[in-house]
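ARCHIVE CARD
Drawer: 12
Card no.: 0347
Subject: one protein chain, sequence and derived structure
Cross-reference: see card 0346
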Amino acid sequence: MKKIVISIALLSVTLLNATTNKEIKTEAKAAIMKMGKSLKSNMKKNMKKGGPVQAATFCAKKATKIEKEVNATYRKGLSVKRVSLKYRNPDNKPTFDEKAVLKQIQKDYKQHKQIPKMIVKQVGDNKYKVYKPIFLKKNVCLKCHGDSKHRDKKAYKVIKEKYPHDKAIGYKAGDFRGAFVVEIVK
């Protein structure tokens, strides 16, 4: 009888966790899409308007402001940020726990393992972090994040003025760049 009660309790916890995980992923996905759409549309607009120099200028001066504005539209207890092991903006430096997740994703990527679209980590009572890995899918990204052969020299001059300790370079198309991190308090 004890085994049956324990089995039912474990099954209940598993089902509850699966439901909670699904809800968390759904909320995180919507938040990431909103943030990503805002950043991407502004980046495209600036790239079209003035090429890599205009896009780099926009990114250096306005991306953080846009992130704050979009975060202000989310419910209390929900926020989105971008982090990277090779960050440009010190605001994108990962915390200790985020760094561990990014290192694991990087390791799995290098070993050609399947990378999950989203990774949910419970970090406290009713507190979660959801990671959405970012890969450099477009060659246009290399204008600012590629090696010296692919980077736009004028655009990178703008970047170095704003971020003299930039680490976000040397990438190739398809490389793991970092992650969106959604913090959710239920």
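Annotation on reverse: Strands lie at 78-83, 119-124, 127-135, 176-185. The helical segments are 2-71, 96-110, 142-145, 153-162.
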